[in-house]
TrEMBL record:
It holds the Pfam family Mur_ligase_M. Involved in cell wall formation. Catalyzes the final step in the synthesis of UDP-N-acetylmuramoyl-pentapeptide, the precursor of murein. It comes from Aliiroseovarius zhejiangensis. Residues 332-451 form the Mur ligase C-terminal domain. Residues 106-293 form the Mur ligase central domain. Keywords: ATP-binding, Cell cycle, Cell division, Cell shape, Cell wall biogenesis/degradation, Cytoplasm, Ligase, Nucleotide-binding, Peptidoglycan synthesis. This is UDP-N-acetylmuramoyl-tripeptide--D-alanyl-D-alanine ligase. It catalyses: D-alanyl-D-alanine + UDP-N-acetyl-alpha-D-muramoyl-L-alanyl-gamma-D-glutamyl-meso-2,6-diaminopimelate + ATP = UDP-N-acetyl-alpha-D-muramoyl-L-alanyl-gamma-D-glutamyl-meso-2,6-diaminopimeloyl-D-alanyl-D-alanine + ADP + phosphate + H(+). It is found in: Cytoplasm.
Amino acid sequence: MSLWTADDAAKATGGKAQGDWSVDGVSIDTRTIQPGDLFVALKDVRDGHDFVAQALEKCAGAAMVSHIPDGVTADTPLLVVDDVLTALAALGRAGRARTDARVVAVTGSVGKTSTKEMLRAVLSAQGRTHAAEASYNNHWGVPLTLARMPKDTEFAVIEIGMNHPGEIGPLARLARPHVAMVTTVAAAHLEAFEDLAGIAREKGAIFEGLEEGGVALINGDLETTPVLTRAADGHHVESFGEGDGNDHRLTHVSLTPDATICKATVAGVEQMFKIASPGRHFAMNALAALVAAHALGADVTLAARAMNTWQPPTGRGTRESVTLDAPEGLTMTLIDDAFNANPTSMAAALEVLGAMQPTDGVGRIQKGRRIAILGDMLELGPDEVALHAALADLPFLRAIDQVHCVGPRMQALWSRLDGDQQGLWVATAAEMSAQVHRLIDAGDVVLVKGSKGSLVSQTVDAIRKMGQSLR
């Protein structure tokens, strides 16, 4: 069954189809486009119209354009629209309207991508499940996800993000979820908001899209929980968290070097489950996913059992072993958390590192170490320096043997470190990447974390290049 025919796509977008074609997917990137995809020529850093000919050479089934670009013949399969982004939103709206799927929308300052992926894992075991790729959660990512949704989808998981006020509401109304969730509210994107309450109000706009009879899921442990509750006024509200007053509670969490062991009460029923990766924040995300599964009508016990198949997405706490030399045992453990960072997620990542067990007696130094390589946390507003410096007060930091810092903001933390714990400070990730081979050794456990814009993912790549990486 085709995803879109020329006629269906034209009706959905108000565009004019050139040729009689059908497509099996929707793509905005010629680097990852598959044969039979509809190529959507969005304008971003580059104009997608410049890549239409290339997409067709790669056997795209058709292209959505606002004008016929150079190098494209008159008989090319096209969908000509007034505006490509507007038409993509219309295609997404039509994709959502033609399915009977139960839809959950997820937002939050921390944990939305991990929670989305947990939901994908647990719902896929109970029905045909469609979820956003990577972090496709913005003004083009949400409609693209909806446009890609097969007609026979039974569960859909839509991630919704924001950088500025007014972004979440329109996307939520496009997604029309039956269940909408805010994982947490934390100091992220503060430069665009006056305070945490402002962030909470924007996150709470996800409830504007709820279908009639829908469920609003709110983290009940937050300072801003009342703000979220007001935003959900008029809808059925359920809370989750560790506090006694929550409708669904996380009652026990223990971390091992390889797993997170959890006990929770969901809808009055006790559930035991394991996550095959350490992290207290993963436990709360898992609770949120189980509560959402329950609200969607899925079997919570089966969902809890399926949770142990979940692994963090790349760059969000993924653990891997890097073999540094040929002799057996000369390995180190890399925790790749280089995609996103704010004070809350930084604390969670440092707790995970503190719970890890290095290996003694295998490296040059003989004693395995817990090492953190930390890049700047971006978009924190006027208090950004103080927020970086305050990381020194985290109790989990005491368990870290050495901290290396990258960027002008993270220098505020570095200056508060003492003795051997104060490692190297450099201004850029490129400088850290050039030095990292001198900073780590076999037996070490190394966390690399920072905002995506800090580019510390370059340091992750440099560590991998030191040897052979094994997930």
